[in-house]
């Protein structure tokens, strides 16, 4: 932006001029005038006083041209001193020779601001000498009045140049310049001054900053260089700039190089930002090429799959993918690549059965490249041997996996049977026609892809699957082996259906297929665990998962209930247990012992059991579950309901009171505790109770007899009530347990090492077992296994005793304790000494001796004793700790 | 089965975090000072709950304790019931609340002490904190007669010389708690003396039958030499009405002096006399004497001979209160010294012992 120096007062300019080193034009002119005699006065008068010249009265009279109009206009237009005036072009121009300046036209142009006196044309050059003498002569000839007038004029004229510089003096047409002047003019002009003050601009234009447009009328005359320079000033349309301009204006219009009246030309700056770009629609990101197998295989089934495919038309979808693809043009290479990839990834959707058939027809080879090459180049027998199903177990490490696959794939009986295994872990396969894979008939190309339904007149199933088998039957040659599976009549699906391997992957098969082939066991024991998943099946898994689960349960239940004979070509010994029975027969419990551990776990999981690590425990649990579901089924003799899940555990609790125990008169410690359920051998004592005398026989004679009999009668009646309680098996168990009250924390009745207890036992004269009995109306509580085994039904309930009875009992116990507390080792002594009392021992003693001394024949349970201890502040504890260990510290 | 003696001290305590007042902890220990140090990280063996959050809950303060349990098993049972009052069967139908606040804990404590299972025991509830006691006083239900409630705040700090690590110091509070047999010292001596004097001719004051020393209970009150059988006295304590249904007495009046005594105190002495071995008794007495001496000791001689004679042990076991007037200063000096006493001090101590014996005799 050009910084314009404002017009300074004349005296300041003259001071600047005085300091110049170059000869002043005045001197030059004088020289010229002296050299030339015939210089016209007009020229000299036309020439305005030079800015470099100090205004002189004579000179002014001689020089100032008679241009009153212009002068008057100039004087009128002259701005007040001190105000900013636009610098005219004349001020800006550099000084030049007086000859040029004296040209009339130039003088006029310079005065008007059109031209600078320094830039005069050669044509306009006039002889300054002519001007001079004209003036002189004119002045001399005039009279005094005219002299005064002229003087006044001259004074006026003198005054006029104050506002104006001499540079703006009109220069009349300069006459012919002397050759010397011309020469000077033509010669190189004097070098421009560096320090120069711009020429005062006579043109006054008002610049309206707010409007943004120059309100002043810019005439062509005013469109001089100074205006152009002024127009170079940058002006933006932003408000900030406006503010700056407005703020700068009152102080000085120089901050941004603007004067108030400067017109600023609007620049037509093209703002690239405002212009809307016309760019192509953003192309879609190129799809990431699928890298993994899963992506590749499933790329076709993604939402953004290309629409141009037969499969999408098969599945009616509302999405219109074609429109999306057409929006954004893509490169041809990319589309082709994508298409190529899609085509490569595109997987035809086959029904599971079809997929299986296809898989059966395919051959798998495992091994390194060299091995495969070697195998392929080998004889046909070896080749067929590799491909053909393994009839012998050991066929080589390379073929193990292959055989397993093929054997698995060729299992007849449906997909459910695909993973049927025998006891040894080998897969079962169908023996159909022999070889699994017939290389001759292997024609992968013959297996067609799924075609549109219109081309096939096939009934639509629920899931809209078209099985390739039906397609083959209509158009294509059927393979050698036709595997038809009949789910409804297939026992193969039986328990083997519980295999988790393909359960979720195999969809339900239509009923049109019937199983024709039998199942033969193939026993490759070494099954490669690193078998790759079958993509075709995996593609169906999502669709068939739900149905598969239902099929699983249904098959399992069907297997349990409905059994059909299966003709086995060579029934293996192990799966014999899996032979089915007719439904009419009583369902026989399957041999859970032949199940694999994983199978047992899966079965147990169905029943909601937690994971059991022990195989034996799993088997027993499964047997129990089965028996519970099939109560009519016979119990397998080998199994016992009451078999302990952990037989390794030592027996706990008080020994059961059995007949043998009673006869021996000693406590059997070997039998299991309260949870021992060997009641299968024990006769039900429901009826025996009424017969057998309960409680201790009366020792005091007849006085106690009626009391005892009454007690017995009461107990018998209440036992009958217990029996009548409809709890099924639980009730029967309760009966057994009533004889042997079981406390939740009862411990095993190992031989007591306590001498006191031993002495008490020795004092038994009645030969009764040490095990206490539950009082009437009580059910013993037993510990239930956390593993989901059949819960021990017995429970202890204090429902049959009132508070009064309880208090009476407690009182009796207290009395018994006190009465028998004379010795130092008595319970009474221990209680008085605040010694901890063992509950079992106290109970035994009470039942054996203590209560007898107070005339009570009833037996108390551990709960009763515990309650009594709590009521009397006796510190009682069990013999064993909660961890089942023997308590060492008392 | 060999029965253990009743421990000198076993308590269940209630801790509260000084950092977070809502954190409470219930435990049991025979030595509350040591246990508190463990909880606060000064000693090894603290509990996980009190050391959790990287020890941010430390230090812990002991609000109250319940002591006087006749056995460690009894204390553990009480602790378990106090921690889980909603599970224990000892409370009967009144299920304890499951809260974890101080008021809840104390209310559960009140519930447990009100039951027959724990109320029959010779327990003492001792508060060390004013706030805890204020909470307790809101419980308007009375406790069974056998439970004693004591407010024992820290009253005086006193450290004389070098003391053992967890010895009692000062007066009041946990620090001043006496966990030794020292409170039974007098009674024990008295009973021993009486029975020794009686010899085989000791008879029961109730049934007037022969009295076995192992079953003889001696009245704890001074000037009363009543002895009786364990069962006879219990029956006497129970009375005719309660005898029918109860077995364990709580307290009763001596048939002779008619002063009330707690059954637990009497039995405790009997346990100490009959079930504590003589060597153990001597060791315990020596340990008690050491603690007492260390309590007022100014300086400790490093060349102290740890083995002490029985005479010194017996002398040092005498309570300062038994020292006659005029000899208190000397007795104090003697108690402050760990090492052997000077002749004059010994004479003073022997004089005090003789005076006591004559008093008893």
How would you describe this protein?
The complex is a heterodimer of chains A (890) and B (361). Chain A is mainly α and 890 residues long. Among the domains of chain A are: 162 residues, no CATH class; 53 residues, no CATH class; 210 residues, no CATH class; 44 residues; 75 residues, no CATH class. Chain A is 40% helix and 2% strand. Chain A contains 34 helices and 6 strands. In chain A, the strands form 3 sheets. Chain A has a two-stranded antiparallel sheet. In chain A, strands 3-4 form a two-stranded antiparallel ribbon. In chain A, strand 1 and strand 2 form a beta hairpin. In chain A, helix 14 crosses helix 17, helix 24 packs across helix 25 and helix 28 packs antiparallel against helix 29. In chain A, 40% of the residues are buried. Chain B has 361 residues and is of the alpha+beta class. Chain B has 3 domains: 170 residues, no CATH class; 92 residues, Herpes Virus-1 (2-Layer Sandwich); 83 residues, no CATH class. In chain B, a hairpin with a 6-residue loop joins strand 8 and strand 9. Classes of the chains: A mainly alpha (890), B alpha+beta (361).
Percentage of residues in strands of chain A: under 5%
Radius of gyration of chain B: 22 Å
Helix content of chain B: 40-55%
What is the mean predicted local confidence, pLDDT of chain A?
Answer: 58
In short:
Chain B: Keywords: DNA damage, DNA recombination, DNA repair, Endonuclease, Hydrolase, Metal-binding, Nuclease, Nucleus, Zinc, Zinc-finger. Chain A has 890 residues and is an all-alpha fold. Helices cover 40% and strands 2% of the residues of chain A.
């Amino acid at each position: 932006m050009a910084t314009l120096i404002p017009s300074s007062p004349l005296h300041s300019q003259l001071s600047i001029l005085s300091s110049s080193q170059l000869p002043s034009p005045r001197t030059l002119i004088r020289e010229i005038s002296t050299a030339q005699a015939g210089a016209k006065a007009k020229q000299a008068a036309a020439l305005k006083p030079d800015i470099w010249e100090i205004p002189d009265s004579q000179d002014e009279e001689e020089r100032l041209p008679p241009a009153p109009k212009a002068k008057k206009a100039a004087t009128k237009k002259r701005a007040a001193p001190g105000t900013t005036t636009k610098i005219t072009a004349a001020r800006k121009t550099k000084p030049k020779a007086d000859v040029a300046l004296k040209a009339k036209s130039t003088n006029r142009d310079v005065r008007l601001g059109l031209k600078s006196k320094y830039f005069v044309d050669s044509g306009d050059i006039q002889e300054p000498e002519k001007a001079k003498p004209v003036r002189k002569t004119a002045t001399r000839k005039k009279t005094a009045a005219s002299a005064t007038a002229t003087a006044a004029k001259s004074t006026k004229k003198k005054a006029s140049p104050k506002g104006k510089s001499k540079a703006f003096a009109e220069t009349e047409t300069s006459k012919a310049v002397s050759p010397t002047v011309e020469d000077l003019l033509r010669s190189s002009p004097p070098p421009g001054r560096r320090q120069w003050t711009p020429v005062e601009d006579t043109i006054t234009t008002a610049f309206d900053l707010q409007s943004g447009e120059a309100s002043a009328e810019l005439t062509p005359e005013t469109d001089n260089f100074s205006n152009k320079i002024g127009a170079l000033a940058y002006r933006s349309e932003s408000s900030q700039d406006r503010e700056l301009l407005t703020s700068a204006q009152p102080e000085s219009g120089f901050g941004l190089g603007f004067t108030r009246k400067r017109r600023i030309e609007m620049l037509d700056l093209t703002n690239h930002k405002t212009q809307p770009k016309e760019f192509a629609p953003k192309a879609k990101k190129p799809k990431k090429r699928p890298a993994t197998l899963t992506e590749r295989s499933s790329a076709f089934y993604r939402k953004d799959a290309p629409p141009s495919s037969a499969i999408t038309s098969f599945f009616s979808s509302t999405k219109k993918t074609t429109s999306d693809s057409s929006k954004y043009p893509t490169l041809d290479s990319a589309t082709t690549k994508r298409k190529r990839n899609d085509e490569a990834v595109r997987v035809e959707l086959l029904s599971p059965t079809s997929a299986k058939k296809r898989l059966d027809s395919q051959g798998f080879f495992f091994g390194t490249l060299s091995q495969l090459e070697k195998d392929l180049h080998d004889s046909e027998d070896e080749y067929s041997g590799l491909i053909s199903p393994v009839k012998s177990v050991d066929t080589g490490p390379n073929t193990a996996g292959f055989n397993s696959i093929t054997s698995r794939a060729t299992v007849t009986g449906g997909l459910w049977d695909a993973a049927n295994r025998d006891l040894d872990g080998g897969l079962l396969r169908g023996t159909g026609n022999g070889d699994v894979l017939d290389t001759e008939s292997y024609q992968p190309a013959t297996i067609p892809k799924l075609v549109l339904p219109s081309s096939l007149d096939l009934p639509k199933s629920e899931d809209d699957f078209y099985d390739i088998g039906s397609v083959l039957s209509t158009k294509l040659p059927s393979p050698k082996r036709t595997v038809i599976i009949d789910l409804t009549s297939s026992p193969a699906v039986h328990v083997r259906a519980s295999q988790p391997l393909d359960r979720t992957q195999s969809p339900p098969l239509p009923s049109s297929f019937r199983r024709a082939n039998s199942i033969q066991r193939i026993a490759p024991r070494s099954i490669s665990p690193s078998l790759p998943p079958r993509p075709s099946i995996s593609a169906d898994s999502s669709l068939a998962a739900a149905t598969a689960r239902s099929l699983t349960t249904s098959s399992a239940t069907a297997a349990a209930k409905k059994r059909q004979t299966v003709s086995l070509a060579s029934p293996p010994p192990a799966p014999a247990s899996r032979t089915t029975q007719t439904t009419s027969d009583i369902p026989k419990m399957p041999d859970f012992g032949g199940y694999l551990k994983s199978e047992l776990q899966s079965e147990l999981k169905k029943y909601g059991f937690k994971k059991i690590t022990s195989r034996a425990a799993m088997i027993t649990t499964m047997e129990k579950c089965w028996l519970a579901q099939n109560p009519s089924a016979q119990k397998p003799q080998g199994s016992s309901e009451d078999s302990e899940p952990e037989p390794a555990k030592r027996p706990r609790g008080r020994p059961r009171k059995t007949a043998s125990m009673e006869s021996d008169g000693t406590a059997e410690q070997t039998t299991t505790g309260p949870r021992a359920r060997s009641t299968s051998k024990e006769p039900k004592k429901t009826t025996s109770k009424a017969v057998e005398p309960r409680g201790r026989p009366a020792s005091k004679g007849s006085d106690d007899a009626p009391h005892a009999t009454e007690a017995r009668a009461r107990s018998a009646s209440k036992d009958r009530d217990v029996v009548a309680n409809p709890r099924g098996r639980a009730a029967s168990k309760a009966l057994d347990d009533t004889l042997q009250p079981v406390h939740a924390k009862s411990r095993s009745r190992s031989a007591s090492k306590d001498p006191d207890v031993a002495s008490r036992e020795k004092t038994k004269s009645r030969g009764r077992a040490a095990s206490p009995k539950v009082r009437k109306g009580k059910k013993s509580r037993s510990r239930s296994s956390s593993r989901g085994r059949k819960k021990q039904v017995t429970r202890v309930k204090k429902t049959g005793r009132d508070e009064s009875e309880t208090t009476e009992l407690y009182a009796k116990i207290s009395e018994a304790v006190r009465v028998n507390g004379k010795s130092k080792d008595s319970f009474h002594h221990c209680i008085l000494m605040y010694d901890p009392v063992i509950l079992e021992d106290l109970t035994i003693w009470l039942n054996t001796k203590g209560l007898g001394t107070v005339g009570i024949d009833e037996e108390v349970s551990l709960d009763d004793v515990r309650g009594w201890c709590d009521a009397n502040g006796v510190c009682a504890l069990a013999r064993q700790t909660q961890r089942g260990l023997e308590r060492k510290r008392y | 089965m060999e029965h253990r003696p009743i421990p000198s001290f076993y308590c269940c305590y209630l801790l509260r975090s000084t950092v977070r007042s809502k954190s409470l902890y219930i435990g049991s220990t025979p030595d509350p000072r040591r246990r508190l140090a463990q909880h606060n990280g000064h000693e090894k063996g603290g509990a996980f709950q009190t050391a959790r959050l990287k020890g941010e809950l430390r230090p812990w303060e002991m609000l109250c304790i319940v002591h006087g349990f006749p056995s460690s098993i009894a204390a553990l049972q009480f602790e378990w019931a106090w921690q889980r009052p909603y599970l224990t069967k000892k409370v009967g139908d009144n299920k304890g609340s499951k809260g974890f606040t101080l008021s809840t804990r104390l209310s559960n404590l009140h519930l447990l002490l009100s039951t027959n299972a724990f109320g029959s025991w010779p327990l003492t509830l001792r508060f060390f904190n004013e706030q805890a006691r204020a909470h307790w006083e809101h419980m308007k239900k009375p406790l069974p007669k056998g439970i004693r409630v004591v407010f024992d705040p820290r009253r005086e700090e006193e450290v004389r010389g070098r003391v053992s690590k967890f010895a009692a110091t000062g007066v009041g509070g946990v620090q001043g708690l006496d966990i030794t047999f020292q409170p039974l010292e007098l009674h024990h001596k008295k009973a021993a003396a009486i029975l020794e004097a009686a010899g085989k001719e000791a008879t029961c004051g109730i049934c007037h039958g022969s009295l076995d020393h192992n079953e003889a209970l001696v009245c704890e009150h001074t000037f009363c030499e009543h002895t009786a059988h364990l069962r006879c006295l219990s029956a006497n304590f129970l009375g005719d009405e309660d005898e029918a249904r109860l077995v364990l007495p709580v307290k009763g009046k001596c048939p002779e002096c008619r002063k009330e005594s707690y059954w637990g105190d009497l039995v405790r002495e009997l346990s100490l006399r009959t079930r504590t071995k003589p060597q153990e008794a001597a060791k315990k007495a020596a340990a008690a004497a050491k603690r007492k001496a260390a309590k007022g000791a100014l300086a400790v001689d490093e060349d102290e001979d740890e083995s002490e004679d029985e005479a010194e042990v017996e002398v040092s076991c005498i309570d300062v209160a038994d020292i006659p007037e005029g000899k208190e200063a000397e007795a104090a000096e003697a108690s402050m010294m760990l090492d052997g006493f000077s002749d004059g001090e010994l004479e003073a101590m022997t004089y005090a012992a003789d005076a006591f014996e004559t008093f008893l005799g």
